Amino acid sequence: MIRIALPNKGRLAEPARDLLRRTGLRFSGLSGRVLQARLGEHLLAIFVSTSDIPEFVADGATDLGITGGDLIAESDRDLDPVLDLGFGRCRLVVATRDEDTIRTIADIPDGAPVATSFPGLARRFFEAANKRITVVPVSGAAEIAPHIGVADVIVDLVATGSTLKINGLREVETVLESEASLIARPGLRDDPAAAAEVSALSDALESVIRARDKRYLMANVPRQRLEEVRQLLPGISGPTIIDVLDGGEVVAAHAVVEQAETYRLINDLRRIGATGILVTKIERLSP
Question: Is 268 in contact with 277 (CB distance < 8 Å)?
Fold first, then answer.
């Protein structure tokens, strides 16, 4: 049984569970404030605080974990990265008040107080920039700190940057970019049986991620326009062309396409005489 630590709440919790469900895995006994649940035949999900997951995995309390890259970097622990999961994207940034004259890291005075809930990352970032600061640890959002005299500068997470603007703050520099990731405890994949389970889970997750922005398009097209169809529907390795039963001048074209391209593709296919156009979601896509 492989133990996997999952966020018990917060912005990563439901996307992580949804991603696992989309692979075909099902939680057994998941309800209310349950602390653990079976996840398929060989996985046991353990629900803990997102910030604790890097430590639990590094210490071997769990074998795998899904948490934010920012928290992985902050922990500075020896971990085995398995797969980036494509959700929970954000950035850790240095920010200051709009009215301040600070425009670059070099403009920050030596010894300036910096409020952050990522003290390790903040220290390492400013040390790498040869800038001496005083870290002021905070447990929650740091946006208020410059306005109440706690710190001149903050290091905090942003998704779109709108929260900073609302609070009269301006980005100075990006410390790191982050997204949710699957991590493993060091040495787990040295065991062949465990490595096989991790590989199976990683492949399944990757197939779901790969399918997210793809659609499966099918259309009946004139046989004499196949060269144009090939240009319109490149697909993964070109469109699949299938003869219809009447063996006439119409064939069926199937292809995996980008979701963002479907509006244009449907119009272009209609222009060359396509009929019976169908676009559907893809649950998983393996090369």
Answer: no
